[in-house]
Design a protein that fits this description.
RecG/Mfd; six-stranded parallel beta sheet; DEAD/DEAH_box_helicase_dom; OB fold (Dihydrolipoamide Acetyltransferase, E2P); disordered C terminus; hydrolase; 717 residues; binds adenosine-5'-diphosphate; ATP hydrolysis activity; globular; alpha/beta; nucleotide-binding; binds magnesium ion
Length: 717
């Protein structure tokens, strides 16, 4: 009787180094190391990135261009040639069967060797991608296996079942490795070790989700059975792959669920609603909250009233009205005699938040201070004092607020505006500044749901999915540089109606000047040549904060018609009377930035316009981005497109996101599986016995093995 190995033993087997595998010597070990493959487990999770269909032999006459085909043929002719145009040497072999013939070509070869390989009459099984040039079909650098004299092709197919008669895996390679080698070694590894890949996933989940055992899934992904659907395999939709993806995402979400639960179990502030400030604020607002704002505010208040800390993400498109929601939450905290910290990733953003909050806070008789890295020392000392002895209710600032010597008398609520920067660390930092304060994370950039669930998986999600009433979609047009007159005409028309316009230039950098019209030069040009009768102001990143503020105030008061600017207005500025956003060199901006910029208009009753000026030389991706902008104003659709164009790594920007690398899952493709995995994971994590019951011991161990300390799961012990 053989004993089934325990989960732990299995895990150890999988750590077996590769040099114990037959045929793997020091040379191969080195090559695999280059691919990041050191153990059997690494090899098992180095999956094919595509497949080749070598199941059936095709008669030569039926070989289709642009397809990878496999066929038997006999050498009819073989000779070295020179191409007529580039005078390059090549070796050509014509092979045929009873149905027809095809040309095989090599551009890199050793002549004596290749001539010996292809004597007239030799037969073989060939494999390669068929190309068509005019009426001629040919294959470059085909794979071949020769038949012995008189050998039946079928017997060869059967004698090398790894290369023929099946759907073949194609792996990512490093230099000096061939598909044949890796296939041979991977086959051994899969045959011998796949059985040790076990997932202590509860049976009911496996059944409900239609998952196969992990070891079977691995076997099938590496070496699909002949009756598999090639289409499913190529689209990454095979049941085997789904099993692997589910498994991977399940552990990620389980980790997130536990993190969330860990925070939820802590003791926090149980705030009471006594409306001392929220009610007067509601009375002062020149509008009614939208239904979405009220719903989200309800969710936030419910969290704040609970005795456990809030850990919530507030997501809403540009202009959806997050600020007022955050302000309401802040007032609840202040009513309960605690303090509020608002942290933004850049000085400009922090400043804009400060002005927005300060307006209302002052009206309510409450104090706010502003703290950044450039706050003068004396002033800083005073601010720290005020926060410490509770003479001020709110601080708005940058990461400077997170520094060690910034102490609060009683921090009740932290609000983090993360834009498109994701940092787990900042959240932890802020949390430490109070006794389990509530936390509200805001993102102005919509994140596709799949990413939100992974990056912010431990947060509860509130979405403002409705715009304030009366907003019309911004009319967006891409205009080629030479036709910019059109854009000026649109601006002129709007100014005549009493509206205002933004014109944005990419950068004020000396080095870029030769290339781009900088904002200041742009403004001079516009003033002299295009709008001599209009009032034009300039705003750029290098100006002193007071000067910036003065310009913004003028524009807001309608004392300027056109605000020429660098991207400093990307966020936060709010002038409903501005109806045109013209962006120079629009192809240079990322989608998120363009969306933010466009969000500066369309804030009032009037139809607004976004004019994207592009140069005639514009990259492929640049064009795609501009197309997306023209096609939709929906921030979530734009974010999805952005994710697709750039891929998750780029989209999130560097590794600081804290997002683990996925071995199998693809966030663009696997959103649905992620949702399912998340649901199952959260329901398990909410089982009160999860952390202690023996029933889950292996699952807990597996979770630790998967994510180690990356998820900071102290509770797992
Ligand atoms: P964002 O979500 O981009 O931070 P803001 O909070 O800056 O958006 O709000 C955008 C604009 O919409 C502001 O002028 C704000 O005063 C206004 N606003 C917010 N909520 C409403 C509402 N319910 N009705 C009308 N206007 C609103
Ligand atoms: Mg805002």
């Amino acid at each position: 009787m053989s004993l089934k190995p325990t989960y732990k033993q299995c895990h150890e087997f999988l750590g077996t180094p590769l040099d114990t595998i037959r045929g793997v010597g020091p040379r191969l070990v080195e090559k695999f190391a280059k691919m990041g493959v050191f153990t059997v487990e690494h090899a098992l999770y180095t999956l094919p990135f595509r497949y080749e269909d070598r199941r059936r032999l095709t008669p030569i006459a039926q070989l289709k261009p642009d397809c990878k085909e496999i066929f038997v043929g006999e050498v009819l002719a073989a000779s070295e040639k020179t191409t007529s145009r580039s005078r390059r040497k090549l070796f050509e072999v014509i092979v045929g069967d009873s149905s027809g013939s095809i040309s095989l070509k090599w551009f890199h070869y050793r002549k004596t060797w290749i001539q010996k390989q292809y004597p007239l009459g030799r037969r073989g099984i060939f494999y390669g991608e068929v190309k068509r040039f005019g009426a001629i079909r040919e294959i470059h650098h085909p794979d071949v296996d020769f038949l012995r004299e008189g050998q039946d092709p079928q017997s060869l197919l059967e004698s090398d079942p790894l290369s023929f008669g099946r759907i073949l895996p194609v792996y990512p390679l490093t230099e000096g490795l061939t598909q044949k080698t890796i296939r041979k070694i991977w086959k051994q590894i899969v045959d011998r070790y796949a059985e040790y890949v076990v997932a202590p996933l509860p049976d009911e989940i496996r059944k409900r989700q239609n998952l196969m055992p992990l070891s079977d899934a691995l076997r099938r992904v590496h070496f699909p059975s002949s009756d598999s659907s090639l289409k499913e395999l190529e689209e990454g939709m095979s049941p085997a792959r789904r099993t692997l993806v589910f498994d991977e995402l399940f552990y990620l979400e389980l980790g997130m669920a536990l993190k969330r639960r860990g925070v939820l179990l802590e003791e926090g502030h149980a705030f009471k609603l006594d409306h001392i400030y929220t009610k007067p604020l509601a009375g002062m607002l020149p509008f009614r909250l939208t239904e979405a704002q009220r719903r989200v505010l309800g969710e936030i208040k419910r969290d704040m009233m609970s005795p456990h800390p809030m850990n919530r993400l507030l997501q809403g498109d540009v202009g959806s009205g997050k600020t007022v929601v955050a302000l309401m939450a802040a007032l609840v905290a202040i009513e309960n005699r605690t303090q509020v910290a608002v942290v933004a990733p850049t000085e400009i953003l922090a400043e804009q938040h400060f002005f927005q909050f300060q307006g209302w806070m002052k009206a309510l008789g409450l104090g706010v201070v502003f703290l950044t890295g450039s706050t003068p020392t004396a002033q800083r000392r005073e601010i720290l004092q005020q926060l410490k002895n509770s003479t001020v209710d709110m601080v708005v600032g940058t990461h400077a607020v997170l520094q060690d010597d910034v102490e609060f008398a009683a921090l009740g609520l932290g609000i983090i505006d993360e834009q498109h920067r994701f940092g787990v660390l900042q959240r932890a930092c802020l949390r430490k500044k109070g006794k389990h304060p509530d936390l509200l994370v805001m993102t102005a950039t919509p994140i596709p749901r799949t990413l939100a669930l992974t990056v912010y998986g431990d947060l509860a999600l509130s979405v403002i999915d409705q715009m304030p009433p009366g907003r019309q979609p911004v009319n967006t047009k891409v205009i080629v540089d030479q036709q910019r007159r059109q854009a000026y005409q649109t601006i002129r028309n709007e100014l005549v109606e009493g509206r205002q316009a933004y014109i944005v230039y990419p950068l004020v950098e000396e080095t870029e000047k030769s290339d781009l019209m900088a904002a200041t030069e742009g403004a001079e040009f516009l003033q002299e040549k295009v709008f001599p009768d209009k009032r034009i102001g300039v705003l750029h990143g290098k100006m002193r904060p007071a000067d910036k503020e003065a310009i913004m105030r003028c524009f807001k008061a309608g004392e300027l018609d056109i605000l020429v600017s660098t991207t400093v207005i990307e966020v936060g500025i709010d002038v409903p009377n501005a109806t045109v956003m013209m962006i120079e060199h629009a192809e240079r901006f990322g989608l998120a930035q363009l969306h933010q910029l466009r969000g500066r208009v369309g804030r009032g009753q009037h139809q607004s316009y976004c004019l994207l000026i592009r140069s005639h030389r514009c990259s492929e991706d640049g064009l795609r981005r501009l197309d997306v902008m023209e096609a939709t104003t929906d921030g979530f659709k734009i974010a999805e497109a952005d994710l697709e164009i750039r891929g998750p790594g780029e989209f999130l920007g560097t590794r600081q996101s804290g997002l683990p690398d996925f071995r199998v899952a693809n966030l663009i493709r696997d959103g649905r599986i992620l949702e399912q995995a998340r649901q199952e994971a959260f329901s398990i994590a909410n089982d009160p016995g999860f952390l202690t019951s023996d029933h889950y011991a292996e699952l807990r161990q597996a979770l630790k093995d998967r994510w180690g300390d990356r998820l900071e799961l102290a509770s797992l012990g």
